[in-house]
Amino acid sequence: MPSEVRALAVKELGDAAQPSGAQGGNRGAGAVVEPPSIKLILRLFIIPLLIAAAVVGIMLPIAYMVGTPSLDSAMERLKNPGGERTMSMVGPGAKQRYMDAKTLVDHMKSGLDEGQRIRLANQLVELLEKHVRPEEGEVQHFVLLALGRVWQKDPHQAEMKSPAAEALCTASSNSPA
User: Fold this and answer.
1) What's the pLDDT band for 55 if we cut at 50, 70, 90?
2) Which residues touch 57 (CB under 8 Å, ≥6 apart)?
3) What is the pTM assigned to this prediction?
4) Domain locations along the chain
5) Which residues, 6 or more positions from 84, have their beta carbon under 8 angstroms from its beta carbon?
6) What is the largest CA-CA distance in the chain?
7) What is the mean predicted confidence (pLDDT) over 161-166?
8) pLDDT, tens digit, for every residue of 91-129?
9) At what angle do helices 94-109 and 137-149 cross, to 10 degrees?
10) Is-contact 150 108, C-beta < 8 A?
11) Residue 68: CA atoms inside 13 Å, Cβ hemisphere, count?
12) Angle formed at CA 125 by CA 104 and CA 121, multiple of 5 degrees
């Protein structure tokens, strides 16, 4: 490499200029530091930047093709067992159930009309009664929290006065805790 030839030539010139007795004590003082070149900057910054851009460029279309799951598929997968802890480590089904729970939360955040609230409340009650066990502490707590927030009033939404909604609200307020 040309930089190595230059460094060797500088070293030889430096060795020839120093007296023979001074070489041992002052070895690094006469070394010439090569300034950063374009090649060094390219190796350190540009190439890793291109690699990172290629990774992002590949992952974005894959994530777009996969898409987000629907609420119905998330509710069906929440019925599968999993989510308990084994020796303070999360079980294998916990990640999928977490992703499904996040889908449910995202769907609830986007706003629900009265019919969707009634349907979701019924699905969550069924999920609690038949599919979620007390050993799955985080899952059970999340489903209870989601059920409590199904009827949380959005200030921008109109009042819900259908007979089905009123029946569900009175049934939930009359049930023993």
Assistant:
1) very high
2) none
3) 0.50
4) 31-67, 71-153+161-171
5) 91, 94, 133, 135, 136, 137
6) 104
7) 67
8) 666 777 777 877 887 888 777 777 888 888 888 888 888
9) 10
10) yes
11) 11
12) 55
With 70 as the cut, is the pLDDT of residue 131 above it?
A: yes
Whether residue 28 contacts residue 20, with contact meaning beta carbons closer than 8 Å, is answered with: no
Q: Using only the alpha carbons of the chain, give its radius of gyration.
A: 33
For residue 23, give the DSSP letter: T
147 has pLDDT over 80 = yes
pLDDT surpassing 90 at residue 35 = no
Nearest to 117 by CA among 128, 104, 130, 129: 104
Give the tokens for residue 35. Answer: 């300034």
Distance CA 125, CA 172 (A): 10
Nearest Cα residue to 142 out of 91, 92, 102, 86: 102
The pLDDT score that the predictor gives to residue 77 is 82
Helix (H, G, I), strand (E, B) or coil at 99: helix
What is the number of residues in the chain? 177
Structure tokens, 174: 């009359």
Q: Hey, what are 170's tokens?
A: 């009175």
